[in-house]
Give the backbone structure.
Amino acid sequence: MPMVMIRQGESGAMTLYIAKKDLEDVVTAIEFDQPDKWGGTITIGDGTSYYIDPLPCPPKLPISLRARRG
Amino acid sequence: MSTMTTEQTEALIQEVLEVYPEKAKKDRAKHLAANDPTVEQSNKCITSNKKSLPGVMTIRGCAYAGSKGVVWGPIKDMIHISHGPVGCGQYSRAGRRNYYVGTTGVNTFGTMNFTSDFQEKDIVFGGDKKLDKLIGEIDTLFPLNKGISVQSECPIGLIGDDIEAVSKKKSKEIEKPVIPVRCEGFRGVSQSLGHHIANDAIRDHVLPALDNDNSFQTTPYDVSIIGDYNIGGDAWASRTILEEMGLRVVSQWSGDGTLAEMELTPKVKLNLLHCYRSMNYISRHMEEKYGIPWVEYNFFGPTKVAESLRKIASYFDDSIKEGAERVIAKYEAEMAPVIAKYRPRLEGKRVMLYVGGLRPRHTIGAYEDLGMEVVGAGYEFGHNDDYDRTMKEMGNATLLYDDVTGYEFEEFVKSVKPDLIGSGIKEKYIFQKMGIPFRQMHSWDYSGPYHGYDGFAIFARDMDMTLNNPCWGKIIAPWKATESEEMKEAA
């Protein structure tokens, strides 16, 4: 269960950062991105995916969350 | 020598790896690569931040070096205790040339060494009592200190001392922050983890200090310089140009920095991040907790300085943007004669770099401003995100080497034949004896500053001084030179 930080990258795209792995990559897909549900399986640029428990609303970025390997 | 193709570079890597045993060869091959600037993800072609191979010569440091030596050490009004045996503190004392203003031993303590000097009995019975006594003594002898940090050396973790409890107790007693840092040298694969641990300690013990205090008068132009260690005065050279364009620099992390400045950092509008590797953690934290955006900048060489100033100004209103243009115009005029003087003397020279932190990629622009080319670069303790950034800056098919070993570096130099090498003190004399001009790029070879416009003029002079030194023509002993000439005559 690594801590991941999701933030708005310089280009405006969402990026996911895993401190433990020093990996920062763009988010290519996010399962739920609706006003009432946000999170789920997040896929990043290198193809790996992480699962974040869905939040009731889109959070204010950046935000640190617990993630599971998706 | 013309530039190498990707095939040639790869062939060279293979040739160098030939002497290793099978297993070592396989491991080292992952850390060496020919650059391909089109690749977005560096982990596809280079592996980094992995344990060094036992038996090869690495030049990495330890977590203690990353925390005490890099991040905490330069904070001048705090006393940093090297907690453990005496050597770690003494042999790293004042070596990094983090300049500061103040009276050493009275209100600043940058070049001093404070250690708990562990003896056998402290290892056997634990050193907590000694630490307790030591903190009391320090506060009596140096009452103007603003706080104390306890930098753990290896034995502290091994014997399981509870420095957190002692720190908490003493902090109450002396009414100053006493900050335990768990940066035992054996943690992690290099000093990089020490940076992270130090950042986490700052996050937990320093930044929350003024969370409920809004008495600090802010302006819309407050910034902080993060990750500038003021080596040879670097942070001062950066600070002057930022202030000239209208910004107010609230804090410097951590070169010539104070505890009060660090506590005020959460009040600024923008964090300017120079050394990404050692301080990105805290910048990310401040972005999340305090909503302060951070921007990476590069103050090496006029091209990159101008680029960075515009990038920084884009976060502010028009007065700052005008200020940036004014500063750029003023200094470009000053830089033109510098470039006119040194560029013809340095044009076309080839450089290989092997340093840490940000320099392998940040100095490329400065060399290019002088018409020089970086043909090989590597990090001691870089991570993937460093290589992501580096690969875009470097030319096609140039050499990339991560945590290069002494043997590999020597072999690369022998076949690439660069005109200048920039690396650390441990490499300096090997290459100078091989007859190759060398600059010690960790502490600017006892020169500096190299940041900003003022720094570039010094940088250009130093490179010229090193490269065009007449001594390089005298590498062959005179009797040997005449012998070969005589032989020619005889033949």
Observations:
- The longest strand of chain A covers residues 23-34.
- Chain A is about 0% helix and 65% strand.
- Strands of chain A lie at 3-8, 14-18, 23-34, 37-44, 49-55, 63-66, 68-69.
- Chain A has a mean pLDDT of 87.
